[in-house]
TrEMBL record:
Protein name: Putative glycosyl transferase, group 1
Species per Swiss-Prot/TrEMBL record: Leptospira biflexa serovar Patoc (strain Patoc 1 / ATCC 23582 / Paris)
Keyword Transferase: yes
Ranges for domain Glycosyl transferase family: 225-379
Pfam families attached to this UniProt entry: Glycos_transf_1
GO biological process: lipopolysaccharide biosynthetic process
InterPro entries named in the record: Glyco_trans_1
GO molecular function: glycosyltransferase activity
Keywords: Transferase
Amino acid sequence: MKIIIDHQIFFQNKFGGISKIFIEVVRRLKEKNIELQTSVGIEEYSKGILIDHSTDRQINLPGFFTLYSVFLVIQKLYTFFGYPMPEFLLKRERGIYKFSLRKQIDQLNERVCHELLSNEFTVFHPTYFQFYFEDSVRNSKTKMVLTVYDCVHELFPEYYGRSNFILKNRKSLCELADHIICISNTTKADLLRLYPSISMNKVSVIYLAGDLSTEKVVESNLPFKDYLLFVGNRSDYKNFSVLLNAFSLLQEENPRQVNLLCVGGGNFSYWERKLIDRLGLSSYVHWKPILSDSQLASYYRNASIFIYPSLYEGFGIPLLESMSVGCPVLCSHIDVFREVACEAAIYFDPKDPMDLKNKIIEILSENQVKEKLIENGFNRVKHFSWDQCADEHIQLYESLTQSNAK
């Protein structure tokens, strides 16, 4: 058995998110001495560095005379003159970044296609939904595994545009794949409902994990003590505006001063700041970057409540991260959150700020409710582990390798 995992997600994401899945799985595959090749070196990915195997140099550094350099200059000019960066430019940052690295990415694409045609590998696992390898896979004996993380592009096309490459490629990729991994039963059900041509016999569920309990305890160095926590990006279906409106209602009713801390996902946009200012929350809503897993664990450990207001998710790693360090979870009542969290969370209507506000007050004011959530969270998180996730990947790779040998 010999596995090849491609480079796409490491150029699509910054450290975290979907890339975390492959970082965790690859680490454990190597620990088990599984013969494995990643098309780009990811050992220093947490520092933002991807290594070209052929030169041992960083491959994801845009040159000085590139569109991304122009973007950075424009960004600095807007900052210097005190103007907000246009939202349409901020949303295109990753696209501009990848466009500026198109030569490097094209070289990696060519190498992966060459490896596939060599038939040296038994299983190919692309990490995202570009289809540069279509002809090579069709002409190779290598089996292909595809992971579907969610169906958000199909269910919320208004946020992405119907010409989005994922919408263009998902169906064809799924039909070509020898096996499809979904990261929750909810995602599997959505995929099969949206694409009835896909055989359910080749789709299985492998759960993710999110345990931060072994991270060292570090000081959070926050200037306030009591705070609610939001983690990750705040775009569109993440439903951040409902959280802000609920927090505003809370501030009006609750005499106890509570802050809202948002970590990761980039600093507040111009429109977010406008909403925060309009709601009179500028002194109470704060943003911090995530510099390490230890720091993230510290933010969870010291929070009064972790709030996850999304309208949709494919899984929800932050649910488990929060539970693993004893932070009570308050999340929207969507199917996947109930699948992952079960009795270890309190649920609210994600379209009703008043319901969210009432649930926050319930947890803050009733110690028994909070203690029960923490206890249930510690029990629930035991059902998920990255070791189990990696083992199930190995079992799948082995089964495809065996079928290939027949």
